[in-house]
Amino acid sequence: MVVLICMDGSKHSDYALKYYRDHIHQQSNRVYVVHCAHYHTEHWQTFSMTPADSAVLQSMIDKDIERISKVVTHLKATIDDLQLTAEIIKVHGNPGHALVEKSKTIGASMIVVGSRGVGTVRRTFLGSVSDYLVHHAHMPVLVCKHPQDI
Description:
Blueprint: E1 2-6, H1 11-23, E2 30-37, H2 51-81, E3 87-92, H3 95-106, E4 110-115, H4 120-126, H5 129-136, E5 141-145
Helix pairs in contact: 3-5
């Protein structure tokens, strides 16, 4: 079985990975831990690109790279702590869409994702990655609620 596990470095995604390991994992499974890296500079074309703007943009890029690097380091440590063998993949763009596309590319049999437990209003305006995956993925999606959110 090929399993895509969505991870963002939060306690919710850490719980989803642990739940997968404790309840579903088989040694024969191929596990892909996928992080959708969000760059604050994705809308950089709005800058006028004067030298000052260029410096601001470079600073934003550097901060994004550092933040994403910390998340990947956390993911590696979490995978090691749980004694799993997994490949870490970074994707970019709209998280729901990017994760569905990656699940197709790797031939995933299942997607595992944590649930942040946000309220109805926030989910309505900002969207929910787990909701998107449940409605758009073409394979089973396991949504793991953190015990503190139940």
